[in-house]
Every structure is written in structure tokens, then in C-alpha cells.
Amino acid sequence: MTQAEKTVRLQKIIARSGIASRRKAEELIRHGLVTVNGETVMTLGTKVDPVHDHIKVEGRHLKSRPPDMFLMLNKPLGYISTLHDPAGRPTIKALVPKPSIRLFPVGRLDYDSEGLLLLTNNGDIAQACLHPAHHVHKTYLVKIKGILEEPEIQKLRHGLMLEDGPTAPAKVKKAGKAEANSWVEITIHEGRKHQVKRMFEQIGHPVLRLKRVQFGPLNLGTLPPGQTRYLTDKEANDLRHLLIAPETPRLPKPKPIKKTEGWPPTTPAAPLRPRPATSSHMKRQRTPSPAGTTSHARPWLPKPQPIKRTEKFPTSGPPGQFWPRPANPKPTRSKKTISTSGITGKAQPRRPGLIPKTRFKFKP
User: Fold this and answer.
1) Rounded CA gap, 190 and 286, in Å?
2) Which CATH class is domain 137-215?
3) Which terminus of the chain, N or C, has fewer Cβ atoms within 10 Å?
């Protein structure tokens, strides 16, 4: 492994240590609270060697990476999915036991939503669970107002157009039915803000209750509301598999052709297809041009064929509706004569552009 492959981004190392999340680590770097080998680093994306470089955060040495920890919480209604709320509302911090390792929630559930919420100290797995490229499915049990009909289910399955763009197709099935409400189970892999609520409002069924029952390979099961449990080894390994990118076969690059090696190619050309024989009426006889003139090439034009009339059409008949009337004679225009003083005899018609010579003659 080369030296460049050993280096890791600074904010990633801080997030791995469990001191803060990756976003919080970026804020610490921007405020100049992180030093590497005694020098303050304020540039995001700086790569360091976690083995040989000495990193301090707020004057304290960065500890080695702790072991991964995963905790599942069945969030009840009336709690914020954060560890601290400036407005003073109750947070999930009061429901989570205080371990020796700092945990942070993966994703969020609204104040009026409930269900499965994952907490971990592994920032890479948390990022993989939330990134849309990994298509981590999330299943919700939703209680909506009104009765959901089959055409509306098809709209959800094909995707809807929301304010921030079209949604991906969702898996929808009915989970229950009451007199005025319906229970629906919907599965999506996107993570937009209030996406499930906006999707049902788009088809005219506001959400009355929302509960997340599955998150990727994790299932809520029978965990009571407000209670937590640690993930099993199998569940933790299933989450680690999200970090493994699918291997795509790479196509070999085409080898460039060198002009020095057998250029141009000596591959024999394909034989030309024989042209069909032209008919006698398509041949054009070329006539020699008279001496002293130049002939210009003209495109070949087919000779027009005369129209053969099989019946004699009468050319005259009594005037009427179906017989052509005799054409009116062309009107004749009287010639205009110009009389010139001093000249006797018959006046000649004046032609345009011709000035009579008598205009410039004077009698002595």
C-alpha cells in the first residue's frame, strides 16, 4: 500500500474516533480547533496519516478508533430525533443509555412519528445507510384519512411529481381498513424530507399516523416503544456489507493504432457491387458542341412521355354550364402618337428611351 493510500481525510478520522459526527468535525476544522503535528489545519479535505501524524482536537490528543457499536431504538411519539434541541423539547437522549462511546442517530423521524431508529458510532456505515446510491429500503406503516383505492395505489407504485422532483416507484400494499381510514404499508429507498407524508397528501389522503417498522436489514419486531437493544452480530455484519461497492466489470481500453506499424492498413477492400444495366431509354446521346463554343454539363433529365388520349374530347359545343365559353378577344390598345412642332408629315410612334433628333435641330 502506497503512502497516498494510507492517508485519510481529517474530518473522517475525527468522526471515526467518536468525538463528533462528520458534520461537527468539519465545523471544528473551520474554526481552527484541530491541529496536525502542531500546525492548525482549517482546510476541509486535508489528508493525514492516522498512524504517524499527531492529531489534536481542542487541545486533546485523538484517541484510537473505538469498536463499532449499534443500537436500535423504538422511538415513541413526542420526541426529537437528535441529542440536543435548542427549543428545549424532549430528545431521544433521555431514552438511550449512556454508554462509554458516543452514539448518534442515523437519519431522523419527525416529532409526531414513531418506530425504528438506528444509533451508531460508525460514520461510514451511517453515510452508506443514508446515501441514495445504496438503495437502503425503509418500510413504514401509515394510517391515512379516507379509503385508498386501486388507481391511487398505482400512482404511488409508478411515482409522483412533488415540489422537489419525481419520486421513485414505491412498494405499496393495504394493511388494514376502517370505516373512514386506511392502513397502508409503503416501502421507499429515498430519504427526502417528509416524503411519505407529501406523497399521500399529493393523492388526497393526509397522514394521521406514521411508524417505521424496517430499516434496511433491520426489523423492529416486538421491541416496545421507548426501549432499546443492541444489534446482533448478523445484523451488524449486514450493515457492514453496505460499504462493499458492487464490482462492475471494466471493459479493456482499445489499443491505439500506430501509424508506423503497417499504416495504411493493407486489408483488401470489399469488391464493388456490379451496377445494373441501364435501359435503352435512359441512355443519353451526347452531341458535339459547335466550334468556338463551350458546353456545360447538365444533370440528366428523363424525357417526358406524350400523353396518349384514348377518347376524343369535343373542342366545341353550345355554351352552357358544362361547355367552355368562347374566350374574350384580347383588348387592343391604340398607339399613342406624338406631334412635334416644325415637322410635317405623319407622326411616328414614340418609343421609350428614344429621344427624337428634331429636338436638337434648330432652323436658321
Assistant:
1) 76
2) alpha beta
3) C
- Regarding beta strands 207-215 and 114-120, do their DSSP bridges make them parallel or antiparallel, or are they unpaired? parallel
Locate the DSSP E strands across the chain: 8-9, 34-36, 39-40, 47-48, 55-57, 60-61, 70-75, 104-106, 114-120, 138-145, 161-162, 165-166, 171-177, 181-188, 207-215, 218-219, 228-230
Whole-number Å distance between alpha carbons of 162 and 195 = 9
CA 195 → CA 42, 167, 270, 278, distances in Å? 36, 9, 61, 72
pLDDT, tens digit (0-9, with 9 covering 90-100), for 316-347: 555 555 555 555 566 666 655 555 555 555 55
**SS3 category, 240:** helix
Local confidence band at 247 (pLDDT 50, 70, 90 cut-offs): very low
Active site residues: 110
- List the domain boundaries for the chain: 3-61, 70-131+225-243, 137-215
Q: Which CATH number among 3.30.930.10, 3.10.290.10, 3.30.1490.20, 3.40.50.300 corresponds to the domain 3-61?
A: 3.10.290.10
> Could you tell me which residues come within 8 angstroms of residue 293 by beta carbon, excluding any fewer than 6 positions away?
none
Q: Supply the DSSP string of 47-105, one letter for each residue.
A: EE-TTTS-EEETTEEPPPPPPP-EEEEEE-TT-BSSS--TT---BGGGTS---SS--EE
For residue 118, give the nearest of 75, 83, 71 by alpha carbon: 71
Query: Bridge partners of 358?
Result: none
Paired with 119 in beta bridges are 71, 105
State the greatest distance between any 2 C-alpha atoms of the chain, in Å, as a whole number: 139
For 14-33, the pLDDT digits (tens) are: 877 767 777 888 888 998 89
Cis? peptide before 264, omega within 30° of 0 = yes
Q: Report the alpha-carbon distance of residue 305 to residue 109 in Å, rounded.
A: 85
User: What is the Cα 55 distance to its own chain's centre?
Assistant: 42
